[in-house]
Amino acid sequence: MKMKKFIYLLPLLVVLFFQKENLKMTPSKEKQKTKVVDTIKNDTLKAAEKLEMYHKGAHASYYANKFNGRRTASGARFNNNDMTCAHRKLPFGTKLKVTGVKTKKVVYVTVTDRGPFVKTKHIDLSRKAFMAVAPKSYGGHIEVDLEIVKK
To answer: Which SUPFAM superfamilies does the record cross-reference, listed alphabetically (predicted)?
Structure first.
């Protein structure tokens, strides 16, 4: 009798296990709340921030959706809704101020990956960061100014 109950429960346990794994990959509401706090901190940081110009007129592109959930070079999981970027040489954890040359819009990102591996591109932004800096309904690549945020 106990074996029959176990046979019925086994598929349910397997489904619950895999749903738990999928939930880890999707951003939680708590994580989204911390992003709002981070943007508020970044706004208040403007007055006291020390910036070092790194590259004027850098060519920026964005990650494809197929990279969502994959590990980055730093070991963190990539999420296109985070404010992150990839750079060839800057150390992981470096905070960058990215300013669109045409739009003058500003976004703060953190280096979490290596790339881009195209010689004409200087930085790969997450999709959310790219769309925040790019002109409306624009895709592909844009020209940006990169500044390193010093503590």
So the answer is: Barwin-like endoglucanases
The CATH number given to whatever domain includes residue 63 is: 2.40.40.10
Range of the domain at 97: 49-150
Pairwise CA distance, residues 58 & 136, whole Å = 19
The total number of structural domains in the chain stands at: 1
Kindly tell me the burial class for residue 109, based on how many C-beta atoms sit within 10 Å of its own C-beta (0-12, 13-18, 19 or more).
buried
* pLDDT tens over the chain, length 151 residues: 555 655 666 666 666 666 655 545 545 444 444 344 344 445 445 555 799 999 999 999 988 888 999 999 999 999 999 999 999 999 999 999 999 999 999 999 999 999 998 889 999 999 999 999 998 877 688 999 999 999 7
Task: Kindly report whether the global pTM for this prediction surpasses the value 0.85.
Answer: no
Specify if 126 maps to a domain: yes
